[in-house]
């Protein structure tokens, strides 16, 4: 039996009804939409007043917002925000880096309609006393910003690698795919060491699809899977010289919105199940063999 319980909700203009002389003010954009959400994993409960869950939201008004869900109190509070992008933010993805001495750094990746991808350190924002301190004015300045595409970023995925490195893959409205190798290091200031991010390698594949790339996943360090509104699912071999197309199959779901994958073992063979959603659902199986990769449809529903 599955039970769904309403825990909390939040309105950006919830303070509006309590304001005096509000007829003299301009109300916040009533058409603001949440374009993407990401859960911040691995938060340290010892530094927080009570068990809680942090969420990051990409917003159409150009803001990246950090919320905290207090399950016991059934409250959803706005903790911090930033309007760094100055345009609609399409995607956010939170990820965690742990130093050798178990010190954790919570990092955030956000992508906007101009093709830029920004990387943030949100560790400090997660350690505040959320019950007594007021809203932080901003998340601060991004550690790094990359112009990955010529227009909006509609898909984003981050895969952790050893030695503090991450693969960041993204797909765009212009049909291009961008993959970069990100390294997390400590700052040079010994008194107050910060977090530094460096791009070690990057590769761009323009015109990889004939339409918006709305789904992308890094399956392993040398394999990337992408899906597009053109109804093609393509498997790529990743090297820092190029993205080589290994296999392509057509799927039956129109207006693709998202792609997700999970790894399974079948008879000692490495493979992944891939689910595509849009105007319907379709499940496909991706098998990685020694010499080639194969995509097979497992069924569709509309």
Silhouette: globular
Strand order of the largest sheet: 1-2-3-4
Q: Largest sheet at a glance?
A: 4 strands, antiparallel
What is the radius of gyration? 21 Å
Structural class: mainly beta
Helix content: under 10%
Strand content: over 45%
Average residue-wise pLDDT: 85
| Count of runs of 4 or more consecutive helical residues | 0
The secondary-structure element order is EEEEEEEEEEEEEEEEEEEE
Extract low-pLDDT stretches.
none
Termini, distance in Å? 25 Å
Number of strands: 20
Give an overview of the whole structure.
With 302 residues, this protein is mainly beta. The protein has no helices and 20 strands. The protein has strands spanning 34-40, 53-59, 64-70, 75-82, 89-98, 104-112, 116-121, 144-147, 153-161, 165-172, 177-186, 195-205, 213-220, 223-228, 232-238, 243-250, 258-266, 269-278, 280-288, 293-301. A 4-stranded antiparallel beta sheet has the order 1-2-3-4, with no helix packed on it. Strands 5-6-7-8 form a 4-stranded antiparallel beta sheet, with no helix packed on it.
Sum this structure up briefly:
The chain is about 0% helix and about 55% strand. The chain has strands spanning about 35-40, 55-60, 65-70, 75-80, 90-100, 105-110, 115-120, 145, 155-160, 165-170, 175-185, 195-205, 215-220, 225-230, 230-240, 245-250, 260-265, 270-280, 280-290, 295-300. The radius of gyration is 21 Å and the shape is globular.
């Amino acid at each position: 039996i599955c039970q769904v319980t309403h825990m909390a909700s939040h309105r950006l203009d919830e303070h509006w009804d309590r304001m005096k002389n509000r007829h003299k003010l301009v109300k916040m954009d009533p058409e603001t939409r949440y374009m993407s959400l990401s859960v911040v994993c691995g938060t340290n409960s010892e530094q927080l007043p009570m068990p809680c869950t942090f969420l990051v939201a990409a917003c159409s008004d150009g803001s990246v917002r950090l919320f905290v869900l207090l399950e016991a109190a059934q409250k959803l509070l706005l903790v911090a925000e930033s309007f760094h992008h100055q345009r609609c933010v399409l995607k956010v993805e939170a990820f965690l880096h742990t130093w050798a001495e178990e010190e954790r750094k919570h990092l955030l990746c956000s992508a906007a309609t101009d093709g830029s991808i920004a990387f943030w350190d949100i560790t400090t924002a997660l350690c505040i006393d959320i019950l007594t301190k007021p809203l932080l004015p901003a998340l601060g300045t991004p550690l790094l910003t990359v112009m990955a595409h010529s227009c909006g970023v509609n898909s984003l995925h981050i895969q952790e690698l050893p030695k503090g490195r991450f693969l960041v893959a993204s797909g765009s409205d212009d049909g291009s795919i961008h993959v970069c190798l990100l390294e997390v290091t400590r700052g040079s200031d010994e008194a107050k060491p910060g977090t530094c991010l460096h791009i070690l390698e990057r590769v761009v594949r323009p015109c990889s699809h004939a339409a918006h790339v709305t789904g992308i996943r890094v399956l392993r360090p040398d394999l990337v899977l992408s899906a597009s509104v053109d109804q093609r699912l393509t498997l790529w071999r990743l090297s820092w010289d190029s993205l080589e197309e290994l296999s392509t199959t057509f799927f039956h779901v129109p207006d693709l919105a998202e792609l997700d994958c999970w790894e399974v073992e079948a008879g000692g063979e490495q493979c992944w199940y891939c689910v595509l959603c849009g105007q319907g659902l379709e499940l496909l199986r991706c098998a990685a063999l020694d010499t080639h990769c194969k995509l097979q449809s497992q069924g569709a529903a509309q």
